[in-house]
Write a structure and sequence with these properties.
The complex is a heterodimer of chains A (514) and B (338). Chain A is of the alpha+beta class and 514 residues long. Chain A has 6 helices and 22 strands. Among the domains of chain A are: 137 residues, membrane protein fhac (Ubiquitin-like (UB roll), Roll); 194 residues, membrane protein fhac: a member of the omp85/tpsb transporter family (Porin), CATH 2.40.160.50. Helix content of chain A is 16%, strand content 43%. A 16-stranded antiparallel beta sheet of chain A has the order 5-6-7-8-9-10-11-12-13-14-15-18-19-20-21-22. In chain A, a hairpin with a 2-residue loop joins strand 7 and strand 8. The radius of gyration of chain A is 30 Å and the shape is globular. The two termini of chain A are 56 Å apart. By secondary structure, chain B is mostly helical. Chain B has 14 helices and 6 strands. In chain B, 31% of the residues are buried. The chains are: A alpha+beta (514), B mainly alpha (338). Chains A and B meet through strand 11, helix 5, strand 12, strand 16 and strand 21 of A and strand 1, helix 1, helix 2, strand 2 and helix 10 of B. Chain B: This is Mitochondrial outer membrane protein. Chain B: InterPro entries: Metaxin_GST (IPR033468), Mito_Protein_Transport_Metaxin (IPR050931), Thioredoxin-like_fold (IPR012336).
Chain lengths: 514, 338
């Protein structure tokens, strides 16, 4: 190992001077390069070795997991037992054996109970052991378990809201990658929220999980002059489909209370005040193909949600079928004369939803929708340039929500001059619009299925009557890894009387922005 | 998931027109005139407002009194099954005040308890801010204000509105005599004393007998107050529990323990005192027309004497039936006004 510093005459002088940062950087670089080269060489050597022996017949006699002291043996066996040669009807080649074990290690990784990386070692059993065959090899997986208890507490302020929270997460509770998460927060807008959920993989499969949870919360909904208190629970099954889509199928039972009305709450809100129980089954399908969900430049996202409440054996106090679809696509736009990525991209979004009233249980007439179940539209995460729930029917100053909506937006993203492309900042211009409508009032009274179908049909037709409510603007995006922040300037172009548009600056934070 | 950072609840509650002006010209950033003119050009197109949802009450013309009642009862204007609501419902009826009743619950009320009155909205569009609700303790004053305003209006417009006066004249004179009498301190003290009989002794016994006496709770309170709010059994049990706990807490406010016998005896004494006060008169305080005090008595007697409710624990009902003049008072009012 040659040291670049050794060229100096007096070692003490050099030491006294301290380390020249440039020299230090250079030293680090050389060391890194050397290490990298070394690593590459070993990798290559290993690769060649495996390549040369890839067709070598191999039997996996044992797989040992080192360091998984808190994980149940039976849980790990379910992942690795099927791979063992005892359970296979033909021998592996070496390459196959390594591939199978790596797939097992990948499953371990996705269970989210072990630290990265999970190292795999191969060994040959001692020839002296009479029970071994010459083709036997042993695998060793070295893992390090993640902390089993994680407690986070904190306070946050901003957005006209102060909040204090505690989050306790118990990981790998019973040694089978089960997790329990408890959340408690107190704030000014979300007055209080307590949530607990337990999740466990089924049959050691990280792609098939079962979850059960409960919530008790109280949220101020100032745009509709009330406070919503929720108490309830859910259970759901989550799985990955072959094509890469994520599915969720679950049951929700929630007791909702509309209470704490503002003194100037509108009659619509006063009529909806009180208790209702929603008992529903829900299915969500998501296909995520965007390169970066917070700042997509290429790819697409498709999502559908279907919910069925109160119908047949579900009971409860509200009956409806609810469907929502969402599609987002992003394409990079090449600029002539700029090589490689130009950093300019176009994203387009479409969202639509329908709330279809259904008769409760065995009743014959459907009940009209309540504010808890209707859609809200508008705000910095969907139709920008409008206030939160600013679109759709308004009674006085209350956004009372609608049963049918369609919204879309087109955003053109530019890099900010002087800011490297890989930094999460962009400049955007956007055009966004949408319509949110309540089902029309029934003319001849009865809400039998035929009448409801007609009303839904004519309300959907109404969506295309005239231009949608539209706003346009420009602004800055900062895409943090967990949320996207935007500061936009916008003006409304088209709106309905009573809708709550916003002229000027608007700040938004969102996970799933339109 | 998302937050509109700049819209604080306070701003939201202001009428829309104001809020928009406020935001297009920020206080710390004085918008230059040309930009303000430019802003005022937007939106370029305003369509008519969106229709309100199906559940929204469309008819906003008559004043609406939100009370505990069934949906059918609300349409028919039947007496409420809650004494606090029935008191004001009866009072407004005695005053010939035009109003409709709406079936509601405590969550809808600005004070957290029914009844409250939602004045008729003058505008036909939903965009206008709705009128503020009038809580029960201000209903009396509000009716007086409304009448005075109407009288003043009819006087200023010299049109011959005889019909208005015909309807109004009588109650108006009554109201003024009541006020004249009210000025006397002795009357005031007597009135307060008798009112507190109703507000404490009779109310306590009523609370106990309805919520804490299990046969009555199952037969009356449960089907009337709890069953309509939800069909879910678990939630019903929770609400039942909350309701009983609230009634118990209310009784424990006045004494350290709940002495059932004492509560019932007090109510029997109170009925006797009310019966003596009424004597052979038609209405309380020798008035020609029933007033607020008659309404307050009627609120309890009508419920206790209502055979349709099905009182199972009839201790309190029996206490009332001993006084034929109170029973007759209830019958007469029921027949004349409901």
């Amino acid at each position: 190992m040659a040291d670049p510093l050794e060229s100096g005459d007096d070692i003490f002088d050099t030491l006294r001077k301290g380390v020249d940062p440039k020299l230090q950087a250079e030293k680090d670089r050389i060391r890194n390069e050397r290490e990298y080269a070394h690593y590459e060489k070993t990798q290559r050597r290993l690769g060649e070795l495996i390549q040369n022996n890839s067709t070598l017949p191999t039997t996996i006699s044992s797989i040992r997991i080192l360091g998984a002291s808190n994980t149940r043996k039976s849980f790990l066996e379910r992942i690795f037992n099927p791979i063992l040669s005892v359970n296979q009807d033909r021998p592996y080649t070496l390459a196959e054996a390594i591939r199978e074990v790596s797939a097992g290690a990948d499953k371990l990784h996705r269970l989210d109970i072990f630290h990265e990386p999970i190292s795999i070692f191969i060994d040959r059993p001692a020839k002296t052991d009479p029970s071994t065959t010459p083709t036997d090899i042993d695998f060793y997986l070295s893992v390090r378990e993640k902390a089993r208890i994680l407690i986070k507490t904190g306070t946050s302020a901003g957005n006209g809201e102060g909040e204090a929270y505690t989050n306790v997460q118990l990981r790998n509770m019973f040694g089978g990658a089960e997790s329990l998460s408890l959340n408690a927060s107190l704030g000014t807008r979300t007055r209080s929220a307590y949530q607990a959920n337990f999740e466990s993989p089924i049959l050691s499969n990280p792609d098939l999980r079962w979850e059960i949870g409960g919530i008790a919360s109280s949220t101020q909904k100032s745009w509709a002059s009330h406070e919503e208190v929720l108490k309830g629970g859910w259970t759901k099954l989550r799985w990955m489909a072959q094509g890469g889509g994520r599915h969720e199928l679950g049951y929700n039972g929630i007791w909702r209370q509309i209470t704490g009305l503002a003194s100037n709450a509108s009659p619509t809100i006063r009529n909806d005040a009180g208790d209702s129980v929603k008992s529903s089954i829900q299915h969500t399908w998501v296909k995520e193909r965007r390169d970066n969900p917070m700042l997509p430049t290429r790819g697409y996202l498709n999502k559908t949600t279907v919910e069925l409440a109160g119908w047949g054996p579900l009971q409860g106090d509200v009956g409806f079928g609810k469907a929502e679809v969402e599609a987002q696509g992003a394409i990079p736009i090449p600029i002539p004369g700029v090589k490689g990525e130009s950093g300019v991209s176009l994203t387009a979004n479409v969202r639509a939803g329908l709330l279809y009233p259904l008769p409760l249980g065995l009743e014959s007439e459907a009940k009209p929708s309540r504010i808890n179940d209707r859609f809200g539209l508008g705000g910095p995460t969907d139709v920008r340039g409008f206030r939160l729930s600013g679109l759709g029917p308004h009674d006085g100053s209350d956004a009372v929500g609608g049963d049918v909506y369609a919204a879309g937006s087109a955003n053109l993203l530019f890099p900010i001059p002087g800011v490297p492309l890989d930094r999460p900042f962009r400049f955007q211009t956007f055009l966004t619009g949408g319509r949110l409508l309540a089902l029309k009032k029934l003319k001849n009274g009865g809400t039998n299925s035929e009448n409801v179908r007609q009303v839904v049909g004519s309300t959907i037709a109404e969506l295309s009557n005239g231009l949608p409510s539209i706003a346009a603007g420009f602004g800055l995006i900062y895409a943090h890894s967990i949320a996207r922040f935007e500061l936009n300037f916008s003006l409304p172009l088209v709106q309905r009387s009573g809708e709550d548009a916003r002229k000027g600056l608007q700040f938004g934070i969102g996970i799933n922005m339109m | 998931m998302s937050q509109d950072a700049d819209a604080t609840p306070e701003e939201k509650q202001k009428p829309r027109a104001k809020a928009q002006i406020k935001h297009s010209s920020w206080s710390w950033f004085a918008t230059p005139q040309p930009i303000k003119h430019l802003f005022d050009k937007f939106p370029l197109e305003i369509y008519s407002e969106n229709e309100l949802p199906q559940r929204t009450a469309y008819e906003r013309d008559p004043h609406a009194l939100y009370v505990f009642t069934t949906n059918d009862g609300a349409r028919a204007g039947a007496p409420s099954f809650n004494p606090g609501c029935l008191k004001w419902q009866a009072y407004l009826k005695f005053r010939n005040f035009p109003f409709i009743t709406k079936s509601s619950n405590n969550h809808a009320s600005p004070t957290g308890a029914l009844p409250f009155l939602l004045p008729a909205s003058s505008s036909s569009t939903s965009v206008e801010a709705p009128p503020s609700p009038v809580p029960s303790n201000r209903i009396q004053r509000w009716t007086r204000d409304v009448r005075e305003k109407r009288i003043a209006d009819s006087k200023s417009s010299n049109l011959g509105n005889k019909e208005a006066k015909q309807g109004e004249a009588q109650p108006e004179t009554r109201a003024s005599t009541e006020e004249a009498t009210a000025s006397s301190d002795i009357w005031d003290i007597r009135y307060e004393a008798y009112m507190s009989l109703l507000d404490h002794r009779i109310r306590n016994a009523y609370l106990y007998s309805l919520y804490l006496s299990p046969p009555n709770f199952d037969a009356i309170a449960f089907p009337l107050y709890i069953a309509p709010s939800t069909t879910n059994t678990l939630v019903r049990i929770t609400i039942s529990h909350q309701l009983r706990a609230a009634a118990e807490a209310e009784l424990l406010k006045q004494s350290s323990r709940i002495d059932v016998e004492a509560i019932y005896q007090e109510s029997e004494k109170a009925f006797a005192a009310l019966s003596d006060l009424l004597g052979d008169d038609e209405y309380y305080f020798k008035e020609k027309k029933p007033g607020l005090f008659d309404a307050s008595v009627f609120a309890y007697t009508n419920l206790l004497l209502d055979k349709g409710l099905g009182w199972r624990d009839t201790r309190m009902v029996n206490g009332l039936r001993c006084h034929p003049n109170l029973v007759a008072h209830q019958k007469k009012l029921k027949k004349a006004y409901f």
